[in-house]
Amino acid sequence: MLRIIAVIIFPLLCSACLFPTKPTRGLEHFNDEAPDVGENAPNFTLKNLNGKEVSLNSLIGEKPIVLQLGSHTCPVYRYRRFSMRQLHAEYREDAHFLMIYTLEAHPVGSNSPYADKEWVSLWNRIPGVLIPQPDSYEERLSVASDSQSKLSKYYQYPYLVDNLNNSVWKSYGSASSPAFVIDQSGKIALKQVWVNPKEIAKTLDQLIEVEPTSSLTQ
After folding, report:
1. What CA–CA distance (Å, rounded) separates 160 from 171?
2. What is the DSSP letter of 59?
3. Residue pair 181/41 in contact by the 8 Å Cβ criterion
4. Which of 21, 115, 127, 156 could form a disulfide with 119 if both were Cys (CB 3.0 to 4.6 A apart)?
5. CA–CA dist 130, 127 (Å, integer)
């Protein structure tokens, strides 16, 4: 009987923890602090993994922008890689994709930015994702490079690394794995506390004015 209950409940827990859609513990502030739909997307200039500076404003124009933020210790960032790979494959010609690597969501040895204590989730302990919070930009760059290398089969778009002041993370709502779609005029077209490829696909279809073709929207 216990085995049957586990078989039923565990997948539900996985779905709730790894594929949430609404603000959860520690993210109650997001809707108030993140830019709203219709507002100008906060500009930033950050370095990519090769040290080249890239600004958001330089990409605004003919194509919408899919902006994703995350860190390797956020399980949602890791487990959304499958559907994000599909999304990127289907829309890479029609939209810019950017990943902003932020502070670690669930670092080992220090408090999580989403709880007043160390919070190393089960979904990190099981695969051994035990990463300390970087103390310098160089350390964050190294962690970001390692994460990109491990997930490069899936996240095949540019990584930019947030500064140690976490200014981009803060300006986009201080969440662990949010995503935004920015339209061709530089305004927020979609705001997500948790990256949700299916809704991103729907918004991209509207912005590029095509008939919905993505299997993500079927």
Report:
1. 15
2. G
3. no
4. 115
5. 9
CA distance 203 to 104: 28
**Over the stretch 91-145, which tens digit does the pLDDT of each residue have?**
999 999 999 999 999 999 999 999 989 999 889 999 999 999 999 999 999 999 9
Q: Which residues contact 164 (CB under 8 A, 6 or more apart)?
A: 134, 136, 137, 140
- Residue-wise burial string across 23-56, b where 16 or more C-beta atoms lie within 10 A, e elsewhere: ebebbeebeeebbeeeeebbebebbbbeeeeeeb
Q: How far is CA 157 from the centre of its chain?
A: 12
Q: What is the pTM of this model?
A: 0.86
Strand partners, 187: 40
Token pair, residue 27, equals 């993210």
Beta-ladder partners of 190? 181
pLDDT tens profile 73-94: 999 999 998 999 999 999 999 9
**60, two tokens:** 């605004």
Furthest-apart CA pair in the chain: how many Å?
59
- Cβ-proximal residues to 180 (8 Å cutoff; 6+ apart), any chain: 34, 35, 41, 66, 67, 172, 188, 190, 191, 192
Alpha helices in the chain (DSSP H): 2-18, 30-33, 75-79, 81-91, 122-125, 137-151, 167-171, 197-208
By the 10 Å C-beta count (0-12 exposed, 13-18 middle, 19+ buried), 72 is classed as buried
